[in-house]
Structures are given as structure tokens and as C-alpha cells.
Amino acid sequence: MVDEPILEIKDLKKKFGKFQALKAVNLQLHKGEVLGFIGPNGAGKSTTIRIILGLIKASGGSATVFGQPAWRQAVSIHRNLAYVPGDVYLWPNLTGGQTIDLLLHMSGQKHTATTDALIKEFKLDTSKKNRTYSKGNRQKVALIAAFSTDVALYIFDEPTSGLDPLNEIIFQQHVAALKKAGKSVLLSSHILSEVEKMCDTIAIIRDGRVIESGSLESMQHLTRNMVAVKTREPADDLRTISGVHQLVYTDDAHTAAEFSVDSDQIGLVMARLANKGIIRLKTTPPTLEDLFLRYYQSAGHLKAGE
């Protein structure tokens, strides 16, 4: 029997007046899974998360967490959930240490040796007042409190905003530890490399709709591999293969070429190249960024320079 989803969203809709922020959002998150939720600003990521958290009410569809409706059972859901937003606002006159302890207390948790280890790892001076903290240090306070809690579901909405690269790595390591412990993580991020490193499944949202979801591996058939090759004989017949794009010969004899190839045509291309005698071959698999840009450029959502 397949485990029931920790989080399930079906045909979720949200209107703000006449503006339809969410049109059809469908997501599933299972135990021990890290789900990457990606899309540009305004696509509907944070609105979806606010509905999951029970902060706003959906206009249509459903959002359930632990099998309970997100809006009606928000209080009980929050007992087993940790959340870190992209912009953390803290009580200005409390110290970082006092704030961490308060956040833990509000979640029914306690300051433990794990908390102390996290403070040391993130190099946070907890004696300073929140009003003196940079954006990155405010993020650290929230992340330390979240990683100190023992809950089933962790929701991160642009959590590394303001963190330096070293602290981003520490964040990634702790997410990996949560996954290993069987916890579930929803990660909303615009840093595609971050999502690619950590996430088991990915959902791409555009204009209030989830337009593609699944593992990165399962979605890579939708984009292209980059190939650089050197052959003994001219590879002129690459021009005749429909799955080959952006073909450029880098020598006059046409024995060196660079091109992109549709994933479902790789076998045919390799067979043709093998007949020409491959001397050197380099292939680069499609990345999440390739996939993401393909969706947004095809819809005219990204312009040059953006």
C-alpha cells in the first residue's frame, strides 16, 4: 500500500478580488521526500504556501496536511510543522538567543544540545539584539529554530535569501539529514542549483498553475543534452537528424561539431557518430535551469537580460 501523502493539494484556486492568483495547483509530498517548488516571483508559490499554512483561505480546490484540511485544522497541523519564510521579521528588542528559545517554546519544543550545535555551526552571535542583525542573521535565527524542532513537515520559502555560500551549504546538509530521518520538506526557491541538489521531485508553477511535476530525471526527456564531438570522418549527416539543434561545425572538415540533441534522439545520434569513428565525445545532461528556461521562454515570460 502506498503511503498517504503528508501534503496533498488538488486543483487549488485563489482569488484576490478580480485577480486569479492560483488557477490550478496540484502537489503531493510524501514521507521522507524533498519537493522543490519553483517559479519566478508572482507565479503563486508564496500564495500556495500561505494556504498550506492556513494563513489564507482557498477560493477553490483543497489543501490537506497530515490528512487534515489546512484552513480548518491549522492549529493542530502547526504542532507538527516548521516554517521558515524568505523575509524573517523578529522582535527588535529580544536577542537572537531569546528569540530562538521563544520560537521553540511556541512550537512546544525545547532548547537542546542540537540547538547549541546549530548556533555554533551557523556562527550566530545570540547575545545581540534582533534589531542589529542583518537579513542573513535573521534567516539564521529562523533556520536554527526550525532545524531544532522535531516535526514531520518542514516548509522553507526562499530560506537561503541573505545567506552566504558557506551557510547555504550548511542549510543543504541539514535538509539532507531531515530526509534521511524520514522527514518531509517543501522547498520553494528561485535558486535552481539549490533545488537540483536537494530535491527528489520538482513542481514548476507558472501563472498560478503547476505546469510540470516529477523527478528531474523523469522530466529531462523534455529538454536537450549538449554534445561536443570529434570524429575521424566528416559528420555531415548530423544535419539530417530532426532531433539535432544548434549544430555548429568547429573545423572546416566537419569532423568536429557542437550541438544540442533531444533526449529521445540520443541513441540515433550516437549510432551515426559511431559510424564516423568517434575520437572524442563530451555530453552534458540537461539541468533544471535548462528545463525551467524552456518553459518560461516558450511562454514568452522571460525577456533578454532577465
UniProtKB/TrEMBL annotation:
<dbReference type="InterPro" id="IPR027417">
    <property type="entry name" value="P-loop_NTPase"/>
</dbReference>
<keyword id="KW-0813">Transport</keyword>
<dbReference type="GO" id="GO:0005524">
    <property type="term" value="F:ATP binding"/>
</dbReference>
<feature type="domain" description="ABC transporter">
    <location>
        <begin position="7"/>
        <end position="232"/>
    </location>
</feature>
<dbReference type="InterPro" id="IPR003439">
    <property type="entry name" value="ABC_transporter-like_ATP-bd"/>
</dbReference>
<protein>
    <submittedName>
        <fullName>ABC superfamily ATP binding cassette transporter ABC protein</fullName>
    </submittedName>
</protein>
<dbReference type="GO" id="GO:0016887">
    <property type="term" value="F:ATP hydrolysis activity"/>
</dbReference>
<keyword id="KW-0547">Nucleotide-binding</keyword>
<dbReference type="InterPro" id="IPR003593">
    <property type="entry name" value="AAA+_ATPase"/>
</dbReference>
<keyword id="KW-0067">ATP-binding</keyword>
<dbReference type="InterPro" id="IPR051782">
    <property type="entry name" value="ABC_Transporter_VariousFunc"/>
</dbReference>
<dbReference type="InterPro" id="IPR017871">
    <property type="entry name" value="ABC_transporter-like_CS"/>
</dbReference>
<dbReference type="Pfam" id="PF00005">
    <property type="entry name" value="ABC_tran"/>
</dbReference>
